[in-house]
Specification:
There is one protein chain. The chain is an alpha/beta fold. It has 3 domains: about 5-85, Alpha-Beta Plaits; about 105-175 and about 245-335, Rossmann fold (3-Layer(aba) Sandwich), CATH 3.40.50.300; about 355-410 and about 430-585, P-loop containing nucleotide triphosphate hydrolases (Rossmann fold, 3-Layer(aba) Sandwich), CATH 3.40.50.300. About 30% of the residues lie in helices and about 20% in strands. The chain contains 21 helices and 28 strands. Strands 16, 17, 19, 21, 22, 23, 24, 25 and 26 form a 9-stranded mixed sheet that branches. Helix 11 packs parallel to helix 12 (about 290-295). The longest helix is centred in the middle third of the chain and has 18 residues, at about 260-275. The termini are far apart. The relative contact order is 0.09. The structure holds adenosine-5'-diphosphate (2 copies) and iron/sulfur cluster. One adenosine-5'-diphosphate binds next to helix 4. Keywords: ATP-binding, Nucleotide-binding. This is Ribosome biogenesis/translation initiation ATPase RLI. One of its GO terms (molecular function) is ATP hydrolysis activity.
Length: about 625
């Protein structure tokens, strides 16, 4: 066949004992006696966990007729097979392929001393694979199995590029690598001790004091790692990585669980280390405002998640993000998405049509003498709306939600909530039914996704539920997996689906963007908005990704104060007023990209920054 197409068999799905080799029975070349689809028998190596079993299939890419045939893809009852025509432009051999009919990666990002290199692409596109190669954990095989290339051949493929020197360093074992893992929630499983012990063991640059100070870790230094919150773990992991004395730093997602202030601090620390100490940094990040801020250049990764991925040559950060959002890569001449992702450059008009779901009075809640106290302005929440909730961590956002559910009672009610709350049902105590998605989505039940979701809603599996929930949240392919086997992004999507599937007055989603890639954020955003519109539902979303808030929210509620001491919550405001208040608290302004209208953080003290602050226009300029 055309050497420009690949066959990928998902060995977690291929289950020949349950299908009787439908794929091979119908494969046209097989039917004429050729050996296109065979059992893996001879390539099976029981020492290789990813080689699958001897009865699973392998597909000869030499013989296969390609994507236009695709009969096996249709016949396989477990969606285990993908036949994909590679883009014509991709004439080189892969940098690495995990095995026969396995994922292949083309190209590599280029670490550069003194610079922060960004990597933007969907989950499953090979970003970690690229990093393992750059870290010397995987020796690239140029897609060859059986006659693996020597390092010389590999380096030859990159001769004349900036990667040549770097890869020679990897070959000679001269490159020290420090890595921040993607899933900080897993750190407590591998470290037994307190923050100080963990950080002191990593302080090779004698930089701990400053990192602890800038990342506000002082209060948790003596705390056991297992008791830290997600946001604290993220900052500890950042400090531990940046304290190392390495040539190449790799940071896989720096923003989950951090509020915007903390995200900006993390970005600045990474930038300073690159610039002041001449280190090479590579950052994978899906919060585009932060990626824009932290990176000096950007590689986009595209392809077909879990089948193949291509890392482009470096682009300017501005163009890279714009091309990504537009869905078209200029230099590569490649469409990566049918439509563009767009932002509203002007504040949306406030809607006046919505009915009121609940009107609540001004209230305060304190957790006892000298402990945290929250002051809430009176306000009302509408039906049909998505209410964005913004503000730092530890400022009382969850406390407010608990006041709405009646789980907590405001001060001065002596244990008896007799607030005069107006609602369409007449006067009643605050006892709204809330469906809640917590910030950290844990999964300890070894139960399948489909069993879990069908236990929540009778609508499970109906065409309506499939269109509104399962499809936009991309659940189809993971339905048969166990909750405990899911990646962070997959778990997030299941948790959003589970929350929206409940019957409630109010849906509260705490950081739905965590661990989702940009595509998934946009799809999840659409699912949530449509759900609110079609169900007369009210959704409150706490999120720190400004692009997610921009795409999601109709109005904003702004929390401000001093985290862990006192907080103040405004009434829900229309977007322009809400964004201005929120960003003024943070002292950050956004300008608009001239081509795409996408918001970009201004450099503090720049012309635009000063002008916008004078005008009081922090976001919609
Ligand atoms: P990303 O970091 O972009 O999410 P990864 O590099 O982790 O992507 O993975 C890309 C693809 O490679 C995934 O489909 C994954 O299943 C596959 N993969 C990862 N490791 C192996 C391996 N050792 N053998 C076979 N396939 C693998
Ligand atoms: P957010 O949701 O904005 O992160 P929270 O409402 O969870 O903030 O918490 C605000 C502050 O109140 C934090 O400092 C938290 O430690 C404190 N807090 C939360 N619950 C309690 C409680 N039951 N007793 C004492 N302090 C609490
Ligand atoms: Fe056979 Fe290839 Fe057609 Fe699949 S796509 S049935 S492997 S020829």
């Amino acid at each position: 066949m055309a050497g420009d197409s690949i066959a990928v068999v998902d060995l977690d799905r291929c289950s020949p004992d349950r299908c009787n080799y439908e794929c091979a029975n119908y494969c046209p070349p097989n039917r004429t006696g050729k050996e296109c689809i065979q059992t893996r028998g001879e390539i099976y190596d029981e020492d290789e966990p990813f080689e699958g079993g001897p009865d699973q299939v392998q597909i000869s890419e030499e013989i296969c007729l390609g994507e236009t045939c695709g009969i096996c893809v249709e016949k396989c009852p477990f969606d285990a097979i993908e036949i994909i025509n590679l883009p014509e432009e991709l004439d080189e051999s892969p940098t690495h392929r995990y095995g026969e009919n396995a994922f292949s990666l083309y190209g590599l990002p280029i670490p550069e001393s003194g610079k922060v290199t960004g990597l933007l692409g969907p989950n499953g596109i090979g970003k970690s694979t690229a990093v393992k190669i750059l870290a010397g954990e995987i020796t690239p095989n140029l897609g060859r199995h059986g006659d693996e290339p020597s390092w010389e051949e590999v380096i030859d493929q990159f001769r004349g590029t900036e990667l040549q020197n770097y890869l020679e360093g990897v070959r000679d074992g001269d490159i020290d690598v420090a890595r921040k893992p993607q899933y900080v929630d897993q750190i407590p499983e591998s470290f037994d001790g307190n923050t100080r012990q963990l950080l002191e063991a990593t302080d090779e640059r004698d930089a701990l004091d400053e990192l602890v100070e800038r990342l506000s870790l002082r209060p948790v230094m003596e705390q056991s790692i297992e008791n830290l919150s997600g946001g604290e773990l993220q900052r500890v992991a950042l400090a531990a990585t940046l304290a190392r004395d390495a040539d190449f730093y790799f940071l896989d997602e720096i923003t989950p669980y951090l509020d915007i202030g903390q995200r900006v601090t993390a970005a600045r620390l990474i930038h300073e280390l690159a610039e002041e100490e001449d280190r090479a940094m590579l950052v994978v990040e899906h919060d585009l405002a932060i990626l824009d801020l932290v990176a000096d250049s950007l590689h986009v990764a595209y392809g077909e998640p879990s089948a193949y991925g291509v890392v482009t040559s470096p682009k300017s950060v501005k163009n890279g993000i714009n091309e990504y959002l537009r869905g078209y890569l200029d230099a590569e001449n490649m469409r990566i998405r049918p439509e563009a992702i767009e932002f509203e450059a002007h504040a949306p008009r406030p809607s006046t049509e919505s009915e009121t779901l609940v009107e609540y009075p001004a209230m305060t809640k304190s957790y006892g003498e000298g402990e945290f106290a929250l002051e809430v302005d009176a306000g009302e929440i509408n039906r049909n709306e998505v209410l964005g909730i913004v503000g730092p961590n530890g400022i009382g956002k969850s406390t407010f939600a608990k006041l709405l559910t009646g789980e907590l009672e405001p001060d001065g009610t002596d244990g008896e909530a007799d607030l005069d709350v107006q609602s369409e049902a007449g006067d009643f105590d605050l006892d709204l039914d809330i469906a809640y998605k917590p910030q950290y989505v844990e999964a300890d039940q070894p139960i399948r996704v489909d069993a879990f979701l069908s236990s929540i809603t009778e609508d499970f599996g109906s065409s309506y539920w499939n269109t509104e929930i399962a499809q936009p949240l991309q659940l189809e392919r993971i339905m048969e997996q166990n909750l405990t086997e899911l990646s962070g992004g997959e778990r997030q999507r299941v948790a959003i689906a589970a929350t929206l599937s409940k019957d409630a007055d109010l849906y509260l989603l705490d950081e739905p963007s965590a661990h989702l890639d940009v595509e998934q954020r946009v799809l999840a955003t659409r699912a949530v908005r449509r759900y609110a519109e079609n169900h007369e539902a009210t959704v409150m979303v706490i999120d720190h990704d400004i692009y997610t808030i921009d795409l999601l929210a109709d109005r904003l509620m702004v929390f401000d104060g001093e985290p862990a001491h006192h907080g103040h919550a405004t009434d829900p405001k229309e977007m322009r007023a809400g964004m201005n208040e929120f960003l003024a608290n943070l002292d950050v302004t956004f300008r608009r990209d001239e081509n795409l209208g996408r918001p970009r953080i201004n450099k503090p003290g720049s012309q635009k920054d000063k002008q916008q602050k004078r005008d009081g226009e922090y976001y919609y300029t």
